[in-house]
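Fold it.
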Amino acid sequence: MEEVPDIFTSIENYAHDHQVLLSSDAIRYFVSANKAGEGVFFALGRIIEKAKATYPSEDNWLVVNLERMEKLIENGHASASMAKDAAMVASPTGVGSLAEAIVTGNVTASYDLSAERPMVALAEATADLDAIYRIKLGLDLKGHEPSKLLKEATTNFSADEISKIIAALSSALDGEFTDEQAAVKMAVIKAITITTGE
């Protein structure tokens, strides 16, 4: 029996179908802001239309991070209560945009998707890639279902390659850099180097 995807994975897959990568913070913010009951995919479709009319895409993909999502949602920036609500929304499982950008070798999107909370983005990308690693080895996913795009993008990767990418991302914790953003950028570059074979 196929597992029903949670709302976060469904939102991410919908965005992917429209060539949009959403950061996990942007998804949390969108879910929090959309509590009024408007149809989720109708609202997301409107946001995507606005985004495409407002921001440039790169390699046919448009990145929407938290800052952009805040600007795209009506009434501009979040109120204090909306920001608090967004922080309380559970962390999405299966939200692999940073992981997807890494395995497809998209450096610019990787930086954009890790800009708001670098270590959180890195942890989520690592968890998504761990799920891919578990799939490759035929292990239990432990409830962490990766996105359809991430599964497709890693079809030709071996379990060993995925393991090396995870190790590269984990290098951000080695203490070499005191600046969180610099540590994550270096880890992302190491990971992308593995994915592109350079």
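The first helix runs from residue 7 to 17.
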